[in-house]
Structures are given as structure tokens and as C-alpha cells.
């Protein structure tokens, strides 16, 4: 990947000018493709003739994605208070702080939706005694791909609501880490904790 600096230039096709034009890299505000907002202060190639952004270098993609994720509405789920306790205890078992719990849920959602973990038992967790209780705590998750992965899980498991899927995943986390510890999985998760700590 070529790394460009502010002030670098090259030639590129400008759709507005309908010709090949000189482009200078500048910091600009660029609208997201989906129209949901604007990425600010992004390195972009600007046509020297019409002053339009016509080129976004690959190096700007991570910053654009970060800003796009920040504009996404979080996925909210209501759970009983003991679910938060189960997540905090699972985090402690992995050597993580309680704020790792959201990353832990997202890890499970990702692995389950991509069939790296079996999904057939998820619905069963919702019939357990631990699944009951007044839902008075909130779990808030943000991720650019989480919505799609949760939709995949709802379809695969025939669990109707996102909140129920999240509840089933928390119960699976509790089972995998504390009730019937899975040593290989626990070691993988400890590696993730070490990497993000």
C-alpha cells in the first residue's frame, strides 16, 4: 500500500470534469457512502481543477470506519441484574476488567454466527432457571457488523428477538467459563484479554 502525505499529488480520473486531472492530497471532510454522516479530517485526493474529492487512499479507510462506527446507534438489550454479575465473573475468570464484557459478547456473537461454535444449544439456555428474572439492566453494544451477525444468529436459532439472543449468549458464556469450563476456549479468550489490555 502506498502511503500518501498531505501535499502529495498524482493523476486520477475526475468524474465531474470528465477527464484525467491532477489530484492533490488534502485533509477534508468526506460524507459516508450511506449518507449517514461525515468523516472529518480525512486524507483525500482533491481534483486541482474542480476542487472535488475524487480519491480516498486505502490508508484513510481505518479512520473512516472508526468514525462510521461512532455514528451507529448501539444495540440495546435489557437483561436481569444477575446477567451482568455472570458477565463480570466471567471477565474476572479471564483476568479482565468488567468493561471487557461487551467485547466478550461480541466475540461470542461473531464465533457463533460464523459457525466456529455450535448454535444448537442457544435456545435451550433460554429455558433454564437462570434465564428468568426481571430485565432491569441494560447491555449496550456497538459494532459495524454486529447487527448483521445477530440477524444471522436469530435466523439460525429461530430465536425471535435480539435481546433473547443476547441473553442466550450470556448464559452460554457463563456455562463455558464457569459452569462447565472449556480450557481451550478459556485460553483463547485469555489471549484476547492480553492483546487488548
Automatic annotation (TrEMBL):
<protein>
    <submittedName>
        <fullName>Uncharacterized protein</fullName>
    </submittedName>
</protein>
Amino acid at each position: 500500500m502506498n502511503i500518501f502525505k498531505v501535499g502529495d499529488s498524482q493523476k486520477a480520473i475526475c468524474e465531474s470534469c470528465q477527464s484525467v486531472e491532477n489530484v492533490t492530497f488534502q485533509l477534508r471532510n468526506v460524507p459516508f457512502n450511506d449518507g449517514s454522516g461525515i468523516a472529518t479530517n480525512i486524507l483525500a485526493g482533491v481534483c486541482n481543477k474542480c476542487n472535488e474529492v475524487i480519491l480516498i487512499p486505502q490508508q484513510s479507510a481505518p479512520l473512516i470506519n472508526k468514525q462510521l462506527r461512532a455514528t451507529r446507534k448501539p444495540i440495546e438489550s435489557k437483561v436481569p441484574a444477575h446477567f451482568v454479575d455472570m458477565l463480570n465473573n466471567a471477565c474476572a475468570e479471564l483476568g479482565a476488567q468488567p468493561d471487557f464484557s461487551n467485547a466478550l459478547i461480541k466475540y461470542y456473537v461473531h464465533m457463533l454466527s460464523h459457525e466456529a461454535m455450535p448454535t444448537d444449544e442457544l435456545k435451550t439456555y433460554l429455558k433454564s432457571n437462570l434465564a428468568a428474572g426481571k430485565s432491569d439492566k441494560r447491555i449496550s453494544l456497538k459494532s459495524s457488523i454486529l447487527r448483521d451477525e445477530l440477524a444471522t444468529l436469530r435466523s439460525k436459532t429461530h430465536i425471535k428477538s435480539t435481546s433473547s439472543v443476547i441473553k442466550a449468549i450470556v448464559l452460554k458464556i457463563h456455562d463455558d467459563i464457569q459452569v462447565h469450563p472449556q480450557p481451550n476456549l478459556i485460553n483463547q479468550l485469555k489471549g484476547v484479554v492480553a492483546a487488548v489490555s
